[in-house]
C-alpha cells in the first residue's frame, strides 16, 4: 500500500470509531464535504501533511500515526476501542477559553464602601482576579468570595460571585448589600412592598434557615449590586 492509501484507511477507521463522518468532521475541524473528499467512496483529494497532522492532533495521536498500518484497528475493534487503545469513555468535557476581561476580587469591606466611590476598584486593589467573557458587564463589576455558612448549600465558602452594581434587582435575585456600616453581605433579594415615602421595602434572605432574615426598613439596607455569575470551588477535605 502507498502512504496515501495507508493514511486514507487509517482516517476511515478513525471516522468509524467516531461513529459518523459528521462527528469525525466536527472533531477534526472540517466540514462534511471536505471529509467526503478525502475518505468518501470516491475520494477526490489526498490527505496532505497538514490535514494528516490535524487529524492526529484532534485524536491525541503521535505525529506519523496516520502513516503506519494498524491492523488491530479493524472491524468491531475500531468501534470498541479508542485510538489510544483503551476502552471508550464518556468524554463530556472540552477545553474552555478563559475570559478576556479581568475582574477584581475585593473584600466585603471594600464592597461596603462602593456606593461612596467615584471610580471602580482597579485590579491591584483586590486580592485576586477573575476573568469573564461577559461584554455586558459594567465597568463597576467586581467579584466577592463567599464567607460563612448563611448561603449554604448553594453557595459554599470559597465560592466566588461576580457582581454588577449597574443592575437593578428583581425578586429572587442574589444581591450584595450593606447596612449603615462598612461591611457588605450577600443574600437573596425579596421585595415586600413600599413604605410611606414610596421606597421599596425588601428582605435579604439567607438560604440557610439557621441565619436571620434582614429587612431594609429596620436594618437600613442598601443594595450594592446584583450577582451575574457564580463560580463554585470544589475542594477535597485536607487530611
Topology diagram in text:
Elements: H1 3-18, H2 21-28, H3 32-39, H4 49-58, H5 76-80, E1 101-106, H6 108-112, E2 128-132, E3 142-145, E4 160-164, E5 174-178, E6 184-194, E7 200-205, E8 214-215, H7 216-219, E9 222-231
Parallel strand pairs: 1-3
Antiparallel strand pairs: 1-2, 3-4, 4-9, 5-6, 5-9, 6-7, 7-8
Helix pairs in contact: 1-2, 2-3
Give an overview in words.
It is a single chain. It contains 7 helices and 9 strands, in the order H-H-H-H-H-E-H-E-E-E-E-E-E-E-H-E. The chain has 239 residues and is α+β, with helices and mostly antiparallel strands. The termini are far apart. Helix 1 (3-18) packs across helix 2 (21-28) and helix 2 (21-28) packs across helix 3. The chain has 2 domains: 3-80, no CATH class; 101-231, Umud Fragment, subunit A (Ribbon). It is 23% helix and 23% strand.
